[in-house]
Design goal:
Shape: globular
Strand order of the largest sheet: 10-9-11-13-12
Number of strands: 13
Mean pLDDT: 78
Low-confidence stretches: 22-53, 60-103
Radius of gyration: 21 Å
Order of helices and strands: EEEHEEEEHEHHHEHEHEHEEH
Largest sheet: 5 strands, mixed
Helix content: 25-40%
Structural class: alpha+beta
Number of helices: 9
Amino acid sequence: MPELHLIHTTVNGQAYERETEARVLLSDFLRHDLGLCGLHVGCEQGACGACTILFDGQPVRACLMLAVQADGHALLTVESLGTPDKLNVLQTAFWEKHGAATVNIPASLPALADCLRSGALPLPEYIAQLAARFAAREADVQAFMPEPARFDRLLHAARQLQARYPNPAARPALFGVAVGVKDIFHVDGFATTGGSQLPLEVLRGAEAPSVTRLKQAGALVLGKTVSTEFAYFGPGATCNPHSPAGQPHTPGGSSSGSAAAVAAGLAALTLGTQTIGSIVRPAAYCGVAGFKPSYDRIPRAGVIALAPSLDHVGVFAADVAGVQLAAGLLANSWNTTTAVAHK
């Protein structure tokens, strides 16, 4: 019999209570049981005097708290909430008693994909953990283009995906995997800036086939990753995730955000491009696996061109196994036969 705990919530003077197991999504309680959205409970505990959350009698700060033990004491908090993404850190979990506040997302793309397809890592919980990691790291790394309510959108897309594939055996290869897409690729529903200040309407285009192939494989688009201006020299705001505190180092370019996102654990797979060294260089700087296939092996359509005769579409992942999985889904006529070395 699972141990039950009492959540007592007061929002705008209205009291609510619920008994629950320790492992429950706070966002599900607030949104589904109470019908509330994140910003309604986005104040610090005690800041307005009207909105508080008690877990087994202990106060919890709704938006600052990333994870708590079952005794209600916060293990990890975010002290600065300056962006809409951080204000939506209600994709948060209560962890089992004395559980660690670590984010249990497999780093390797094949392992993550297996967990999501099988349900060993439930998709809503994955989104919750990803949001917690995003809140903890993105402000320093700045791998992604800003997007208000990013995780509201992602959670909605995840629910639609689950409804489409209720049977784990029928789920596609990248079911639920959140991917980053360099901001020179066109993606339906997202603006493309190319790292520039040009009006958005002059850069519109049809979705890149590479992005469509990832979606068809079940991937969810986490967002656009920062690119140098038109994949050339002008750097964006992205910092190398391995930089010492207070000493920001370059992540390499031009696919800077895509490499940094994988290195920071924000995405298990990202799309990038290379004309000269824009995949292999940031992969080396950030310590991840980057793959630049042969020319046009992954279609270049739907991508802002720098030098059409030299541009290549490629991927970043945490390891070679992740790159291999992605390449088999993206590359034309991919050969899955494993070569055998003869001594």
